[in-house]
Amino acid sequence: MNAPWTALKQQIQTWGKALSFDAIGIASIDLNAASARFKRFLAAGWHGQMDYLAKHGEKRFRPELLVPGTVSVICARLNYLPEPLQAMRQALGDPNRAYLSRYALGRDYHKLIKRRLLVLARKLEERIGPFGYRVFCDSAPVLEKPLAQQAGLGFYGKHTNLIAFQQGSFFFLGEIYTDLPLPPDPPLPKSYCGSCRACLEVCPTQAIVAPYQLDARRCISYLTIELHGPIPEELRPKIGNRVFGCDDCQLVCPWNRKAQLTKEPDFLPRHGLEKASLVELFAWSEAEFLAKTEGSAIRRLGYERWLRNLAVGLGNAPPSLKVLSALKARLNHPSALVREHVSWALAKHTAQLKTSATAT
Hints:
The protein has a four-stranded antiparallel β-sheet with strand order 1-2-7-4, with helices on both faces. A two-stranded parallel ribbon has the order 3-10. The chain contains 15 helices and ten strands. It folds into two domains: 3-83 and 105-178, no CATH class; 209-257 and 270-359, no CATH class. With 360 residues, it is α+β, with helices and mostly antiparallel strands. Strand 8 and strand 9 (213-214) form a beta hairpin. It is elongated, with a radius of gyration of 22 Å. The chain has helices at residues 3-18, 32-43, 63-66, 85-93, 109-128, 144-150, 198-202, 220-226, 236-239, 248-251, 278-282, 286-292, 303-316, 321-329, 336-359, and strands at residues 23-27, 72-79, 99-100, 133-136, 155-156, 162-163, 171-178, 208-210, 213-214, 242-244.
């Protein structure tokens, strides 16, 4: 009875490979365990300003409510790592360079993955006829990581990211909710981290409060991308030169020693963002920002918060004439948010210079 569905599942995986996905798995729709974890995360208030995570009721935990008729989920994984880990460490280690999370250096992954999943769904439709489905990629109340874990695509790291055995954690996920009774893959156990605590220890803001528990309000990715107001002053010095997201917990993960570079040209760096300086990016006009972030995940940040983040990075950079001049040029910016962070950065440099002068 199950043989035709097993054969169809194998065909789906073959098509997925031809579409350059790194892995395809099938998940069941039982998310009870993940639902309990997620609700504890919300109850602790760790989601901060990400109010959308608390919306949609049970639809996030019950796929059949989000897409009526859903009985299985086709999960896809696609690597995005655009450069060797050593190059990332060099960028982080240079306080004058702007560090952007490597997933954001190329084109926005949402559209690329959704388009590819639609091609996969249409191939399936050509084979079996019309069926019920809907495609997602970080675009709806979907528990992507729990579904991918159930589909055997990865296990949870203590940093709460998903990790694949042979490819590490630098990958995107996408899903097709479907009414086809495809046989699910065996889920991977929760974790293979053992006694390792590298990610907890390296986190600049101690956002990983315990293994598998993340207080997003302290996470640099949250602070530089999701937070809309001022970045808390006590956390600004810890952000360093990270102006869009953070990869530290992934960089130190032993499983990423095997991380493979992406084969997707669209995920490769554009406009020299992998090596740009803080001063260079801070000088962009709004028109330049919009032009150079077109088709990029960075665009959703907006120009005002882009300058806010760069001002923090410049405040953490070594004092120099270039850095001070760049900050002073934005001291009277129309945005109060930008002015506040510029003033903080200049005050920090003033204090450093006074301390240095006193010491000599």
